[in-house]
Design a protein that fits this description.
Distance between the termini: 53 Å
Number of domains: 3
Largest sheet: 5 strands, parallel
Strand order of the largest sheet: 2-3-4-1-5
Number of helices: 15
Order of helices and strands: HEHHEHEHEHEHHHHHHHHH
Helix content: 55-70%
Structural class: alpha/beta
CATH topology of the largest domain: Rossmann fold
Number of strands: 5
CATH superfamily of the largest domain: P-loop containing nucleotide triphosphate hydrolases
Strand content: 5-15%
């Protein structure tokens, strides 16, 4: 199967990348292939998947077969000529970029290209972005940079101007559902539900379809607005929402953190007989702990952001009922809550629901600026209770 087979609804991107791979294989001077690319698109559109698939295709002897050792190792992040930078903290700092630049200065060890995939270029600090800019301005002869970000405005103009831009779009619900059925063996009904409520976000759709606990947690969150009858209920709902988001993040991060700490400690000699850990081991563990705390903070905020997006779909559905002359369930994202949505539409005004939808979007913005999660959600719930 081709590496690009799972880029759902991105035929225009696949065509451009295949042309670039062919130009790279021919060694021709052409506009199809360049040393720096910028993939943008809404969350879940597959911008990182497209970049990794492109990286694997560049180093694949067959141009992206998807089955050879080069393709598999590149996608797994273990190929020596493909560096995948995945940011789990709140930002990418200049020291990380400087270390990266030292590594990618080496010539390719196996294939004809050395490829760097940066999945969160929007998280570069200003100094880190400036350090990266210098490398893109003066690239190595066989080095290709693949940057990913939600929008063009999330990247410095100086970096944008030196990259080829590819804009991905949100896949359709039908395309995402078909992928879940074909790739993951999900039942058609469950695949339709996951694709619909995730609004084309492939990663979220897959998690929803494969994990019942996530579906249960979402159901609890989606029912919160129907019980916001008093300020006390609003504060209780805020506590519930933050607790659910924290539980989801903790469940994912604790096991990873424990494994990472154990493996790093063993690498430095922790628990060994004799002198114990080598010099510098304690410092390395402390640095790891700092990174893990940063990752846990980001995961909580990401979980909250996902919950707010879910709540936004509820008020979107209420507005659809209020503005439609016919209450067609085909238009609803949350068909399972049709009765509650119709009832809310009958007792509220479109103006109020638009205000509440805007309040949800503002809360997302506040969280992205590192506002206190509980205070932000409490303020939001109070606004939704009005």
């Amino acid at each position: 199967m081709s590496l690009f087979a799972e880029l759902v609804g991105q035929s225009h991107i696949v065509l451009a990348l295949q042309d670039a791979v062919q130009a790279a294989r021919n060694g021709e001077e052409s506009q199809e292939m360049t040393h720096a690319w910028l993939f943008t698109g809404p969350p879940g559109s597959g911008r990182s998947s497209a970049a990794v698939a492109f990286a694997a295709a560049l180093i694949c002897p067959a141009g992206g077969c998807g089955t050879c050792i080069d393709c598999r190792s590149a996608q797994a992040g273990s190929h020596p000529d493909v560096e995948i930078v995945r940011t789990e903290g709140l930002s990418i700092k200049v020291d990380e970029i400087r270390e990266l630049l030292q590594r990618v200065a080496w010539a390719p060890s196996l294939g004809g290209w050395r490829v760097v995939v940066m999945e969160d270029a929007d998280r570069l600090t200003e100094s880190a972005a400036n350090a990266l800019l210098k490398a893109i301005e003066e690239p190595g002869a066989r080095t290709v940079w693949l940057l990913c970000a939600p929008t063009l405005s999330d990247v410095l103009p100086t970096i944008r101007s030196r990259t080829r831009h590819l804009q991905l779009r949100t896949p359709s619900t039908a395309d995402v559902a078909e992928l879940l059925v074909r790739r993951d063996g999900i039942s058609p009904a469950l695949a339709d539900f996951a694709a619909r409520v995730s609004q084309g976000h492939i990663g979220r759709a897959r998690h929803l379809a494969n994990d019942e606990s996530i579906r249960t947690r979402r159901k609890t969150i989606m029912n919160l607005p129907f019980h916001l009858t008093t300020l006390a209920a609003a504060f209780s709902a805020a506590a519930t929402l933050v607790e659910l988001a924290t539980q989801e993040a903790d469940t994912e991060s604790e096991a990873r953190s424990e494994k990472e700490s154990r493996e790093l400690g063993q690498a430095w000699g922790q628990g060994a007989t004799g002198r114990g850990m080598a010099a510098g081991g304690a410092k390395a563990l402390k640095e790891l702990e700092k990174e893990q705390k940063s990752r846990a903070t980001r995961m909580v905020r990401d979980s909250l952001d996902g919950a707010l997006l879910d709540l936004a779909t509820l008020y979107r559905d209420v507005l659809m009922v209020q503005f439609s002359s016919f209450a067609s369930t085909a238009l609803l994202l949350n068909k399972e809550l049709e009765g509650e949505i119709t009832e809310m539409a009958g007792r509220t005004t479109p103006e109020k629901n638009l205000e509440k939808l805007n309040a949800i979007m503002q809360a997302r913005t506040n969280l992205s600026y590192n506002a206190a999660p509980l205070l932000t959600i409490e303020a939001l719930m109070c606004a939704l209770a009005q």
